[in-house]
Structures
1.
Amino acid sequence: TATQSVLTMSNVEVVYDKVFLAIKGVSLEVGQGQMVALLGGNGAGKSTTLKTISGLLAPERGEVTRGQVHFMGEDLAPLGPSQRVDRGLVHVLEGRRIFGHLTPEDNLLAAFSLKSDRRRYQQLRDQVYTYFPRLKERARTKAGYLSGGEQQMLAIGRALMTEPQLLMLDEPSLGLAPVLVEEIFSIIREINANEGVSVLLVEQNAAAALEIAHHAYLVENGHIVMTGEADVLRQNPDVQEFYLGGA
Ligand code: ATP
């Protein structure tokens, strides 16, 4: 492609418990400024793919990765998870792991690493509040009391505090009412368009993801079974039947 790639994965395999192949030769690419969706059902291998990229798999637990992952041209293999965050790669885990006993603002502060740079902190925090005004309105509420949608907003906001080049989102729509999914997805689209942040979006909700993504990969049983422009995939009869509920 003409656009420079931010992330390239080639022939990645992941083994759990030394014997189980969870992903079987996955290759994918995220171009600069692109929003790429990784779609598939339960257990297809989507979360495993993201964990491979963010460095959350642990060889000492028998979780072994083969193949190559490059981020901005750099081989990620020698880098630990926090070094990857420093490089601009951030992973919002499935299930929104926010600090429930802290306020939204303290959650944002906890995710900001240059504690001495108060001005930069305020700029980033205000940017998060611009995208998610609801978080500002709920500033005095402990995050554990926020609604599911608000917690998802906070999880994304925390990721933005690290000034990512690549934002990886694991099922941001999970458990949310359709109107909220629409709201959050349109904000993700805005962040991608306005901030130049590339996005890798993992979803079971293919219909919603294909509306905002530029490009998509379909994963089944640890393999990429189809890839293409989101608009083209939406018109594909097999995609319509198996991913879009026969729409
Ligand atoms: P989900 O949306 O349910 O998370 P997924 O597409 O993200 O689905 P993965 O979580 O990547 O799928 O799981 C891929 C396969 O690996 C599944 O068969 C799953 O049971 C298995 N698996 C996931 N995590 C582990 C683990 N820690 N140990 C052993 N097997 C695992």
2.
Amino acid sequence: AKEAGRGAFRFYTEAMSRAAQDRLHLDTRLRRALERGEFALHYQPQIDMASGRIIGAEALIRWLDPEEGMVSPARFIPVAEESGLIVPIGEWVLRTACAQAQAWQAAGHELSIAVNLSARQLQHADMAIRLAELFREFGLGPGRLELELTESMLAGDHAQTEARLQALKALGVELSIDDFGTGYSSLAYLKRFPIDVLKIDQSFVRDIPQDRNDMEIAATIIAMAHTLKLRVIAEGVETPEQHAFLKERGCDAWQGYLRSRPVPADEFEQRFLLCSDA
Ligand code: C2E
Ligand code: CA
Ligand code: CA
Ligand code: CA
């Protein structure tokens, strides 16, 4: 039986798909990228619908690979999640975002930074303790950091998840649900967990105003969020028509290419914090 097992293993190795090899290779390169400091955070402005003011920035990771150039997080984050490398990468993201939040806080800018969190990071029992340490190290006041979670992270062991989210809230962190409406989970978690913000997924924004169903979905998410005393932010806003529709329906804030792509911190300051880019 042992021999057969070994044979099967060899067979598997030889037959290993090109995709799996690519993944292995990518994981090795990601490790090296972390050591060599090849990651950067770009920031996309989040804009208050009523006033047009910049109220926040979503931090989005970028990898400048010396061989391939800019590699999309959509390609490497899933690989890092699978291998567990997302934990040190996520730690780097949090530290870098906190350092940036400190700089903007010191310069008198009233904005929060929203960081995308992976399931594995939330599963770490000492996540809230680590964040408390970072807040102390960088002297961050409450409301400076938001964490974006996805619906799938809120399924599973409810008591434990609730305790973890409460610990994060106790630090003055706001919690958002990213890609809202695209998960398969029930909405029960909205009652149970201390959520502050729903982010309307860009798939419901993209085809406004051509797709009546998407318009109804977006409007319904806004109405429901307000009933539950949650704020709502639309992502992927690319056209004035989309912006006008969401504003008319009472959406609180938005982000999207209509205002800006995610940009490096220095460009963000120049365009959105130092002078008015109206
Ligand atoms: P996401 O969190 O849903 O981020 C929104 C994505 O939409 C970003 O892609 C952003 O650049 C893009 N986007 C923003 N405005 C528009 C628009 O008007 N139109 C269109 N078509 N797209 C727009 P990006 O930066 O490539 O990130 C992809 C995903 O990678 C993110 O989706 C997020 O799930 C993940 N990700 C990025 N940074 C991090 C990170 O630091 N940690 C973790 N765990 N995941 C991250
Ligand atoms: Ca996000
Ligand atoms: Ca999203
Ligand atoms: Ca996403």
